[in-house]
Amino acid sequence: MPPRATDPLDDPRLTAMGLLVETHAGLIRAVSPSISANGLLVPEFEVLVRLSRTPRGRLRMSDLAAQVGLSSSGLTRLVDRLERERLVAREPCPSDRRGAYTVITASGRRRIGSAVAQHLEVLDHWFTGLLDAEELATLMRLLRKVRDHVNPGATTGAQAAKALTPVS
User: Dihedral, CA atoms, 122, 124, 127, 129, nearest 10 degrees?
Assistant: First the structure.
């Protein structure tokens, strides 16, 4: 636990949270132009990346919502837009009649594939390129530690999808 300051306004916990919020806001501003140049909004990009990186390219709607930090209704509206553009499709969940999967389509894979190359250049310039390999590994480990505590459901869908994927 970090040391506490005598004056609560000087507490390093406030500083850490403030730095995280400022960093997130700055990175979103930095990456948004390259994402929108590919005809996507940041949340749409995030959904397509998550689906692309998941075995079989699909996640349950509830798991996807947890990963991208959207409410169920917010994700439904976003998936509706992506579905109209034929970037994703919905599939019923065979084990739960109320559940559904969001599945990336071939068109969605092409769109995210062209967007990712430019996105990685921007990330390298504004974020990962500032860190050496050890710093990046440490940052990812620490972010996962906090993410798993504040959003424990965020990895559920990816873990379930991996378990269903046959090993070659």
Answer: -160
Closest CA to 54 of 110, 120, 102, 95: 102
Q: Are 153 and 66 in contact (CB under 8 A)?
A: yes
CA–CA separation, 99 and 87 (whole Å): 20
pTM value? 0.82
58: left (phi over 0), alpha (psi -120 to 50) or beta: beta
pLDDT, tens digit, 9 for 90 and up, residues 37-73: 999 999 999 999 999 999 899 999 989 998 998 988 9
Neighbouring CB atoms inside 10 A of 31's CB total 19
Could you give the 3-state DSSP secondary structure of residue 143? helix
Tell me the domains of the chain and their CATH numbers: 33-122 (1.10.10.10)
